[in-house]
Amino acid sequence: MTPEETRALLLYRDGMMLVVNKPAGVAVHRGPKGGSSLEDQFEALRFGLPRNPALAHRLDRDTSGCLVLGRHRKALEKLGLLFKHGKIDKTYWAVVVGGPEAAEGKIDLPLGRLDVSRGWWMKPDPSGLPALTHWRAMGRGEWKGTRIAWLELEPRTGRTHQLRVHCASQGWPILGDAIYGAMRPDVPLQLLARKVVVPLMKAKAVVAVEAPAPPHMMGALAACGFAGDPPRSEMSPAIDTETRESAVGSGSS
Length: 253
Hints:
Blueprint lengths: L2 H5 L2 E4 L3 E6 L31 E2 L8 E7 L2 H12 L4 E9 L6 E5 L2 E3 L8 E3 L7 E12 L2 E10 L6 H8 L21 E8 L8 E4 L4 H9 L8 H4 L5 H9 L4
Parallel strand pairs: 4-11
Antiparallel strand pairs: 1-2, 2-4, 3-4, 5-10, 5-11, 6-9, 7-8, 9-10, 11-12
């Protein structure tokens, strides 16, 4: 990925944080076995600051959409606390196989590790950590011979693979999920980190950023009634000039 391609992923920028549109199929950081990652490209996202931005949270390799980065140490500390205490609202879109009969609901199901040999794979576990997901059906349809539903998912906790395990536990796994039960060789994981809402500054309005639906999800979403995103300029502001200039001028590091 060239520096220009990396900067083209930018959805939002101010003096404390960046939000980038993570592509599906790209790891956010190097794993135990090495390999390339999005983190390798962060030098292109300095925008005048002396150090690279850093991850404020994680997204799975096959999930696309809003990824929050802190631009310096103080920003990372603040963002870390906001994520830890559930102050950052996250909204995901998923296309699932089958789908719920109701229009909306919640999944309150603790999760634990499947076993030590499976790394981060998770399972429903009564003695595991609490995990809560609210969901809403946005549309239904049929695509490539499969009945599907388009769901809006709001995780109220941040467990590993929470949305994927929760959906699978209800009998409607996320389409393209090779781990939890709906793998199709011709379909990537249909999961998008659609929106983040960050209460970054007490004296300012919350920062709300949306990622557009990626090309690999457009077919299934369209089958469920999605008419496409508005122009990117109407989805979220790209740069908060006032905050950026004040933070850069302060010499934060």
